[in-house]
Design brief:
Layout: E1 13-18, E2 23-29, E3 35-36, E4 48-49, E5 52-55, E6 61-63, H1 64-72, E7 76-79, H2 82-88, E8 92-94, E9 97-99, H3 101-116, E10 125-132, H4 137-149, E11 157-161, H5 162-171, H6 175-178, E12 181-188, E13 191-200, E14 207-215, H7 229-248, E15 253-259, H8 269-275, E16 280-284, H9 287-300, H10 304-308, E17 310-312, E18 319-327, E19 330-337, E20 347-353, E21 359-366, E22 373-378, E23 391-398, E24 403-410, E25 423-429
Parallel strand pairs: 1-10, 10-11, 12-15, 14-17, 15-16
Antiparallel strand pairs: 1-2, 2-3, 2-4, 5-6, 5-7, 8-9, 12-13, 13-14, 18-19, 18-21, 20-23, 21-22, 23-24, 24-25
Helix pairs in contact: 2-3, 3-4, 5-9, 7-8
Length: about 425
């Protein structure tokens, strides 16, 4: 997605959406701290089951908790796992009619945003950040299609990973929460994910990196086979304690966040004692949606917290890409793509006048201090012309966090040389 040109006043609204297969959430803010949309009269029903349901024999669709209740009462046909279904791409059959799974995901999003419009006017929305677990190339295409289907302004919609949403949230907390490493434990139906965030304040810019471990055997319903309730709690507590010790025993950790309904109840007594020994503990569900909300606001009105540190998550480009060019008779460096940004946010178009060489050289500068290298793109068969008489259009697009697609098109040279129509394409990697 491209940068925004929206001017934002105090009445502009920023929306963060945590889109997950089991449940989703929406947070919103102006200039204050984000609030999470509740599906009821209180503040406890912030989780929206990511599902739809179609009433039998009718064209009426419900979503979220209502869809769950109607399907449980056998009043409607349920469609759950909307993100997974969109990824699979297979048509979803509902009462002998096939539905596009991406269209169903868009319908769910439309109903969520419709509920939000009762709280804050949608026309005042300056930016929307959609946060998903893994914003890979396939997921980005799905989200792009959802945005088009909903007729949202693409320049106002952004995407980021859950990991980056957590980073955005942490950067807006007090320093005692994030003075050292931070541990985020997210327990959902796929298992327990433990993510450690570490800062390097000795680099310019300062960076935060993450390390993720997945424990797919540790589920909300783990140890249900043990009949004795107290024995079940104790075994689950001990297993979680071992996981924590394996991750943070040798680190200085300021705080631990426990996310997901799986941490409800009183089963984690010893684990909490361990966590709270010199650390702060937080429990909740809306860290990702609030972090996405901060991310949306940062796209329009970056705060000091947004500029303080660069997050180098798995979907970040780990190198700067540029080239040497001649300006006013002197060779200088021209930046093309900046590292430290999401790969799906980066693209570049520019026109170049070629010297006598029939190649373009890209300079790749890793952010981790590794050796700078060059990659050459040869323009085989380009027409013979005088020096600086060949104008080309260079288009760069990131295909992943490390793969770049470069396309060069011969543009001719004004009235002197007609464009040949020739085009060259190459892919290369930053690592």
């Amino acid at each position: 997605m491209k940068g925004m040109t929206v001017r934002s006043g105090a009445d502009r609204v920023f929306i963060g959406i945590d889109l997950s297969d089991d449940f989703s959430q929406i947070s919103y803010c102006t200039v204050d701290e984000p609030r999470t949309m509740s599906m009821g009269s209180g503040e406890t029903r912030m989780c929206i089951p990511t599902m739809l349901a179609k009433r039998y024999g009718e064209a009426a669709w419900s979503f979220g908790e209502e869809a769950y209740e109607q399907s449980a009462a056998d009043e409607a046909f349920p469609v759950d796992r909307l993100v997974e279904r969109a990824r699979n791409g297979a048509a979803v059959e509902v009462e002998a009619v096939d539905y596009d799974p991406t269209d169903l995901l868009a319908l769910f999003m439309k109903k969520c945003l419709g509920r939000l419009s009762a709280i804050t006017p949608i026309e005042k929305v300056a930016a929307i950040m959609i946060s998903v677990e893994d914003p890979d190339e396939q997921m980005i295409k799905i989200l792009d299609q959802v945005v088009r289907t909903l007729r949202l302004k693409a320049e106002r919609v952004f995407y980021q990973s859950h990991a980056e949403s957590a980073f955005n949230y942490l950067m807006h907390q007090s320093m005692d929460v994030r003075a050292q490493d931070v541990c985020v434990c997210d327990m959902r139906q796929q298992g327990l994910v433990v993510t450690l965030y570490s800062q390097n304040v000795h680099t310019k810019p300062q960076v935060m990196i993450m390390q993720e471990r997945v424990y797919d055997h540790f589920l909300p319903e783990s140890f249900e086979g043990i009949k004795n309730p107290e024995g079940r709690k104790k075994m689950k507590d001990q297993e979680f304690l071992h996981i924590l010790q394996a991750n943070i025993d040798d680190r200085i950790v300021s705080s631990v966040f426990l996310l997901g309904d799986g941490f409800e109840g009183d089963w984690s007594r010893e684990s909490l004692k361990y966590i709270c020994n010199g650390r702060r503990a937080f429990r909740g569900n809306n860290l990702y949606s609030k972090g996405a909300c901060y991310g949306a606001r940062g796209k329009v009105n970056p705060s000091p917290a947004d500029r303080e540190m660069v997050f180098l998550g798995p979907d970040k480009v780990k190198a700067n890409i540029g080239m040497n060019v001649y300006r006013k008779g002197r060779e200088s460096y021209m930046a093309l793509l900046d590292g430290g940004k999401n790969w799906y946010d980066l693209s570049r178009k520019c026109e170049l006048l070629l010297e006598s060489e029939r190649r373009i050289q890209f300079i790749i500068t890793p952010l981790n201090g590794k050796e700078v290298r060059t990659v050459s793109m040869f323009l085989k068969g380009i027409p013979e012309r005088k020096r600086r008489s060949t104008r080309v259009l260079l288009e760069l697009r990131m295909l992943s966090e490390s793969r770049i697609q470069a396309v060069v098109t011969d543009m001719g040279f004004g009235e002197f040389f007609e464009p040949s129509g020739m085009q060259w394409e190459m892919e290369f990697k930053t690592d």
